[in-house]
Amino acid sequence: MAVVFDMKRCPEACNLQVGDSVDCTPNKDGGVIKKLMKAGVGDEFPNYGDKVFFNYTAYKGDEMTEENIFDSSEKDGEQFEYDCLRGKVIRGFELAVLSMRPGERSLIYLTPEWGFGKSGAPPRVPPDTNVIFDTEIVSVELHIRGECDGQVFIDKDVNFFMGEGSSDEHGIPPFIEPYLDHWKNGEEARINYAAKHAYGAAGCPKYGIEPNKDLVFWINMKKFERNGEYDLASKFYEEMIDFVQHDLCMEGAEEKRRRNLLLVGNLNLAQAYLKVDKNTKARDCCDTALTFDEKNAYLGMMEYEKAKKDFQKVLELEPYNMHAKKHIDICTNKMVETTQSERDLDRRMMSGIGKHSDDGSSLYSSGMDDIDNWDNNMAQGMMPLEEEQAAFGDISPSDGGNNHGLRD
């Protein structure tokens, strides 16, 4: 039975003092414990659709030791980002992040129910295992200055989350944010907006901007680090995989469909990565795809020994992969069945030798018996003996031999 998660921001978790801890779960079941390590700034919290940037180190088990690290944003030298409340990270992690301010660092302790479930995430996270995330949330920091007819209507530093509506809450015009996604740290620019691309005929009473006014902005990007850029196809497949890979509570037909999506998504993403020379990531996608493959090409061609070796390789990569174990057993049974079938066939073939039919004739009579009267027409086109000897030499059998050069 699937678990229904109540993803509501915990008020107590929003007002912690450094060193304090709180249970973020609605039922206070101890599944999500957040401990504040460094206070953030402002009163802004992630909302639906906000793009959240953060650094993290993830540990399996109950101890934060180097040997227990199973994932980290530092491994690629890039910050991690996701769209809030769209099911792209495990539920417990997202519930805790809902109560984090920009610049805040917290430890997030998750039980299996709010983490990777009873199945875990082999081989990195064993089944039914607690996990800990050391997380620091990051945001966009910039200075923006805007003018209309030479009059300054906005001039301030802004710290906000990239995402739907977040920048507008801080007074940044909504047509500015889409262009920020391509900026780099320390970049400065002057941007001129024609009226139709700014506030248009409606104007903006909030800033005293009349209808149909051109605007000028100066922007200094103080802090913004983004993940590496991929081709559009890569982004689509990444989003598809993120959307389904953490839904670990599905069962039956829904779980089978989820696994098929992850198989196809990882294979296509691997191909897209190869096109942009991200070979290591392409290899990782292929390894992941193997863990979701319900069948095997060799298995389909009934080459069970080769198929078994493939599934054994999967177990080397992911020792807890139950599907691989299941298919190794299938291959073993098929190999036994095939061997038995071949033996039965040989036995049936050999059992007729020396036996006679109901009329007393042998079941395996000489093939010569099937030849009726020889007709010279049957020899039409054959070379005379003299021509054959001239062409191929004298290959007549020795005395007492048969036509294969062997003695009887």
TrEMBL record:
Q: Which domain of life is it from?
A: Eukaryota
**PROSITE patterns the record matches:** FKBP_PPIASE, TPR
Keywords linked to the UniProt accession: Isomerase, Repeat, Rotamase, TPR repeat
> Known catalysed reaction(s)?
[protein]-peptidylproline (omega=180) = [protein]-peptidylproline (omega=0)
Instruction: State the residue spans of region: Disordered.
Output: 389-408
Q: Where are the TPR repeats?
A: 288-321
The segment(s) forming the PPIase FKBP-type domain are: 49-141, 137-225
Please name the SMART domains in this protein's record.
TPR (SM00028)
Q: What is its EC number?
A: 5.2.1.8
InterPro entries the UniProt entry points to: FKBP6/shu, PPIase_dom_sf, PPIase_FKBP_dom, TPR-like_helical_dom_sf, TPR_rpt
Q: Which Pfam families match?
A: FKBP_C, TPR_8
Say which family it is in: Belongs to the FKBP6 family.
This chain belongs to which protein, by name? peptidylprolyl isomerase
